Amino acid sequence: MRLSSLLCLTLVVGGTMSGGLSAARCRTTAAQPVLEKVVLVSRHGIRSPTQPVERLREETGRDWAAWPVPPGQLTDHGRADLALMGGFLARHYQAAGLLPTAGCPRKEEVVVWGDSADDRTRQSGEIMARALAGGCPTISRSLPAGRHDPMFNAVAAGAATLNRAEIMRELSVVRQHDAEGAATVRQALSTLQAVIAPDGCASGGPCLTAASGVDWTHGAPRLSAGLALAATSAENLLLEYLQGMPDDAIAWGRRDVPALLDDIMPAHAHASDMLRRLPAIAYPRGRVLASAILDSLGGKPVALPDGTVIGGDARVVMFAGHDTTLDMLATIFGLDWYFADQPDRTAPDTTLGFELWRRPDGAPVIKAVIFHQSLAELRNALPLENAGRGMDLRIASCARQVECPLATLEKEVRAGIAAHPPA
Fold first, then answer.
1. How far apart are the first and last CA of the chain?
2. Spatial CA neighbour of 187 closest among 101, 107, 267
3. d(CA 3, CA 21)
4. Average model confidence (pLDDT) across the chain
5. Where, residue-wise, is CATH 3.40.50.1240 in the chain?
6. Strand 34-43 to strand 351-358: parallel, antiparallel, or no bridges (unpaired)?
7. Is it the case that residue 315 has pLDDT exceeding 60?
8. pTM for this structure?
9. Phi–psi pair at 301, nearest 5 degrees
10. Closest by alpha carbon to 50, among 119, 113, 115, 114?
């Protein structure tokens, strides 16, 4: 008999249950797999555009809506939405047996680490920590404010460098496949041009439909020409809608904003595919976090950048990061996803989960799952229902199966990391 079965038998006979081993988990029969741990990676809540509205006006020739917070900061609406996602995740993993349904989890069972580079990620980590612990005292830790954390971007932190020649080779392949010529991307660029600057290309103004290029600046590639402005503009219009701004204040009075967002967000996704999800960029940037996820799932201690350690007893581990964090992990772990009710696959609060399940024969398997909120839920701060919220993802290294043996996943991911050395 396995240890967990013995513990369940002892606890049931004795009439007591511990916070670490819940009744829900003990109800699992020997013929079913058991969920033992989850590592979550979330994007921060709704923020204002990272550029001042004056800069946006210079780039687009348009007056953009004012925000209640400085550039790149979480809004109160964003905090409320993120707390709803955190509360849902807590209820979801309580029902799954990872978190106690009553009382507080032990401090070593819930670990939250936030990116120190921005206020929005540190604050998001704090919100998630409170929610996952059911309001109990739980600290979200991070490096000192403003420091580059190798967990979230090993390149910015100086723990890895980008290989320019490899990146340009991969970009050349992407461009040969003419991804930008896809109908949805062409439509996105054309729609954005019509919304922002209908005569821009002919008059010397913003030309979002111009052929995109890539410049190498400060040791990294940067999109130039129309696509870069189109991707940023599409995301900023999305953020205005999610923030709950009045309809007539979004997209300069355009009607049916949700339909507009469906049309224009492929420009943002395409820009992410070109750079954020390019393997030659994703692996160097994400090598530290990907290794930490594998070690945690394998029951190994994980040293955090501040010197503290995530121990083997951790049952729920969360890294509070950015959309770029989700994009790089999607590439490294061979994942992809789309939502029918949300045009941004890495929208605010979107949370990627790596669940460790133990089969009846003792074999550990990994399931990847994604949680998100719809446009309406984010805009109106609607409560999240429990049923059917998480979407299982297929993992490329396991023939696109939902379940992937831990050993197989670890072998494939570490091979990818080794193929993209840090320097």
1. 48
2. 267
3. 12
4. 90
5. 23-159+279-418, 164-274
6. antiparallel
7. yes
8. 0.91
9. -65, 145
10. 119
Q: What is the CA radius of gyration of the chain?
A: 22
Instruction: Give CA–CA dist 252/241, Å, rounded.
Output: 12
392: which strand partners?
369
171/177 Cα distance (integer angstroms): 10
Q: What is residue 27's predicted lDDT score, i.e. its pLDDT?
A: 46
CATH for the 23-159+279-418 domain, from 3.40.50.1240, 3.30.70.580, 3.90.76.10, 3.60.10.10:
3.40.50.1240
C-alpha 390/C-alpha 339 separation (Å) is 11
Burial of 176 (0-12, 13-18, 19+ CB in 10 A): exposed
The pLDDT of residue 13 is above 50 = no
Secondary structure in 3-state letters for the chain: CCHHHHHHHHHHHHCCCCCCCCHHHHCCCCCCCEEEEEEEEEECCCECCCCCHHHHHHHHCCCCCCCCCCCCCECHHHHHHHHHHHHHHHHHHHHCCCCCCCCCCCCCCEEEEECCCCHHHHHHHHHHHHHHCCCCCCCEECCCCCCCCCCCCCCCCCCCCCCHHHHHHHHHHHHHCCHHHCHHHHHHHHHHHHHHCCCHHHHCCCCCCCCCEEEEECCEEEEEHHHHHHHHHHHHHHHHHHCCCCHHHCHHHCCCHHHHHHHHHHHHHHHHHHCCCCHHHHHHHHHHHHHHHHHHHCCCCEECCCCCEECCCCCEEEEEECHHHHHHHHHHCCCCCCCCCCCCCCCCCCEEEEEEEECCCCCEEEEEEEECCCHHHHHHCCCCCCCCCCEEECEHHHCCECEEEHHHHHHHHHHHHHCCCCC
Task: Identify the three-state secondary structure at position 319.
Answer: strand
In eight-state DSSP terms, residue 197 is: -
Give 83's pLDDT tier (boundaries 50, 70, 90).
Answer: very high
Angle at CA 189, nearest 5°, toward 186 and 191? Answer: 105
Residue-wise pLDDT tens digits, 119-173: 999 999 999 999 999 889 888 999 999 899 999 999 999 999 999 999 999 988 8
Output the CATH code of domain 164-274.
3.40.50.1240
Backbone angles phi, psi at 162, to 5 degrees: -90, 145
Residue 70: its H or E element: none
Q: What is the pLDDT of residue 215?
A: 86
For the record, the structure tokens of 197 come out as 């600057």
